[in-house]
Design brief:
By secondary structure, this protein is α/β, with parallel strands linked by helices. The protein has a single domain, classed as Metal-dependent hydrolases (TIM Barrel). It is built from nine helices and eight strands.
Length: about 280
């Protein structure tokens, strides 16, 4: 029997010289530099992680093409989640063209940065969502808690769309706010087939976070989505604002201690393969 694949389902690369990362400013000192495959490779090796999903960090087609070029040259990048302007009338054609690349597995509009909270429900986006589905791609939902009511409606509109909710929809862990988020995430989990990423939580906590700060949120995601729809990711290098890669992995191991080996294998790799149809 082959050993289960360990897969990091959410990581980024960027080169500052590209100049299309509007959110990446000099005040983000720990991550305001280039992060490239040679930086991550030794970390993955030490952690025993064989593959990754590379996720967009800029709202440009050029960055998506850049990521695909990195994936062509680095076999550990198993898939790329890119970006397309869903409002562009040529978006369906752009989606079809990008989907012809074997490493393109999904698309992610940067919903968290769009002022209109219900943007995802705009009728003009229907052709883009349809093209995404028809091309066998996965929709990464980069949402905040305020978007969850609209995300639930979106999932009802497109029940056949494979969806992965990034970072647990970024609950406000630093303030301890949980009740409304927990209820809405539970409703989404029960009312859809969506997956959810166990990633990006350390940067929603306070700078001096402890495992106990994260525990109620992780336990809720695990109870809502179950071990068959929860997907582990590092959110590297963004995670390094408050945690090393190794500390987040160790924290994950501690938080999943009650899971069986089979359940851990699903969360730490198997579910990503299904969610991204790999």
């Amino acid at each position: 029997m082959s050993k289960p694949m360990r897969l990091d389902a959410h990581q980024h690369f960027w080169s500052l010289a590209r100049d299309d990362y509007g959110w990446l400013t000099p005040d983000l000192v720990p991550i305001y530099r280039d992060f490239l495959p040679d930086d991550l490779s030794p970390i993955l090796k030490n952690a025993g992680i064989e593959a990754t999903i590379l996720v967009q960090a800029a709202p440009t087609l050029a960055e998506t093409e850049y990521m695909l070029s990195l994936a062509e040259n680095h076999t550990f990048i198993k898939g790329v989640v890119g970006w397309v302007d869903f409002e562009d009338e040529t978006a369906p054609e752009q989606i079809s063209k990008l989907a012809s690349h074997p490493k393109l597995v999904g698309l992610r509009p940067m919903i968290q940065d769009i002022e209109q909270a219900d943007w995802m429900l705009e009728p003009k986006l229907a052709s883009s969502f349809t093209a995404l589905i028809q091309n066998g791609l996965t929709f990464d939902a980069l949402t905040l808690p305020k978007h969850l009511v609209y995300l639930r409606q979106l999932l009802d509109l497109y029940p056949g769309m494979r969806v992965v909710i990034d970072h647990g929809s970024k609950p406000d862990i630093a303030s301890g706010s949980i009740k409304k988020w927990a209820q809405q995430m539970n409703e989404i989990a029960n009312g859809s087939k969506a997956y959810c990423k166990l990633s990006g939580l350390v940067t929603e906590a306070s700078a001096d976070w402890t495992i106990e700060d994260l525990r109620p949120y992780v336990e809720h995601l695990l109870s809502s989505f179950g071990p068959s729809r929860l997907i582990w990711g590092s959110d590297w290098p963004v995670c390094t604002l408050t945690s090393s890669y190794e500390r987040w992995l160790e924290t994950t191991d501690a938080l999943l201690i009650e899971c069986s080996d089979q359940e851990r294998n699903q969360i730490l790799g198997g579910n990503a393969l299904k969610a991204y149809s790999l």
